[in-house]
Amino acid sequence: MSVSRSTFLAGAGALAGAGLPPLAGAAAETYNLRELVAKPYDLETPLQYFRTFITPTPAFFVRSHFGPPVDWPPADFALKVEGLVQKPLTLTLADIRALPAYDVTCFIQCAGNGRAFYRPRPAGAQWTWGAVGNARFTGVRVKDVLARAGGVQGAAAHLGVVPADHSPSPQTPLFNRSIPLSKALDDDTILAYAMNGEPLDVAHGGPLRLIVPGWAGDNHVKWLLSISPQVDETHGFYMDTAYRYPDQLGEPGVPVPPDKTHHVTEMPVKSIIANPLDGALVAGGPFTLEGVAFTSRGEIDRVEVSADGGASWQPATLGSEKAKWAWRLWQADVKVVPGPNTFCVRAFDTAGGEQPAHQQWNPSGYFWNVYHTVTVRGLR
């Protein structure tokens, strides 16, 4: 399914057009990303780039609510550590880099990835399959930063997070958020200053971004200004109304009151076909399907493919590269026959999750994870 008025842009050229510096590595190779929204700045990754364990930074999707901050980062950039800590402090990027470095390889997926497929279409950026990527982030543990501030005090149960981006209109709510302190103190929750071995670029949240492995992309807050342990969660539009999922799904098109929803955090199991692309012309005979699979819950247990539109299934082979929060590559050998060929993929995780054949509608269009299906034409 295509998205109307979508435009394919070169990764480096798109950034220049938006007034941003090129993505790290963009000069070495051109990656074509699809622009969903120019203001704010949303770019979707085409599926042909989902054939490597690490998604190259210039191929990694870009999501923002108001666009990168103007004239960012400032020369005097620093992170405030405040709230319920023993010794509130301000840390320069050099101070942060002086703390023990920690690597986390994880996938990040926008909660609305797949929104374009729901009927009726929910409001919001009409992502198809490409609002996800897998990268290696380097930074410091949140727990180590809080320890530098003397540790958490009192009855703190949440970590408030304030980014630098904001709307030009003062009436628009700020994207201030919080996560439970228990998740913030997890060994793998970090403040990242590097992505795939290079300094974190502005488009992906540089110079400092919160990485919350296993949770939806809204929690991975970019352009950090401050973090603060606090008793209650942050309140505001992006916590109390947006990024929430119904406690119980209802009829399509029917809104759900915020008090009958919960925060978007973990994501269900999902797999994607990266090769061949839907609508491709493929030589008849043996062919190797390729793609990725990921989950927030446990690990990928197995992936299965179908060469007859879902009537029967065969196992795929999982790639050898893996990490706790990362996606898995998979391959499966099939036969392409002359004429139309329909291939499907589904994944299962160790927590009992399974991709469904059908999806029930929700008001925000979150967590689309039905079988990914492509139809290609086999050549004689």
Please write out the topology:
Elements: E1 7-10, H1 11-17, E2 32-37, E3 42-44, E4 78-81, E5 89-92, H2 93-97, E6 102-109, E7 132-141, H3 142-148, E8 158-163, E9 177-180, H4 181-184, E10 190-195, E11 198-199, E12 209-211, E13 224-230, H5 237-240, E14 244-246, E15 261-263, E16 270-275, E17 281-283, E18 285-294, E19 300-306, E20 314-315, E21 317-318, E22 328-336, E23 339-349, E24 372-379
Plain-language structure description:
It is a single chain. Helices cover 7% and strands 34% of the residues. The chain has helices at 11-17, 93-97, 142-148, 181-184, 237-240, and strands at residues 7-10, 32-37, 42-44, 78-81, 89-92, 102-109, 132-141, 158-163, 177-180, 190-195, 198-199, 209-211, 224-230, 244-246, 261-263, 270-275, 281-283, 285-294, 300-306, 314-315, 317-318, 328-336, 339-349, 372-379. Mean pLDDT is 92; it is low at 1-27. It folds into two domains: 1-266, Sulfite Oxidase, Chain A, domain 2 (Alpha-Beta Complex), CATH 3.90.420; 270-379, Immunoglobulin-like. The longest helix has 7 residues, at 11-17. A five-stranded mixed beta sheet has the order 5-4-13-8-9. Strands 6, 7, 10, 11 and 12 form a five-stranded antiparallel beta sheet that branches. By secondary structure, the protein is mainly beta. It contains five helices and 24 strands.
Tell me briefly what this model is.
The protein has 380 residues and is mostly beta strands. The chain has helices spanning 11-17, 93-97, 142-148, 181-184, 237-240, and strands spanning 7-10, 32-37, 42-44, 78-81, 89-92, 102-109, 132-141, 158-163, 177-180, 190-195, 198-199, 209-211, 224-230, 244-246, 261-263, 270-275, 281-283, 285-294, 300-306, 314-315, 317-318, 328-336, 339-349, 372-379. The model is unreliable at 1-27 (pLDDT under 50).
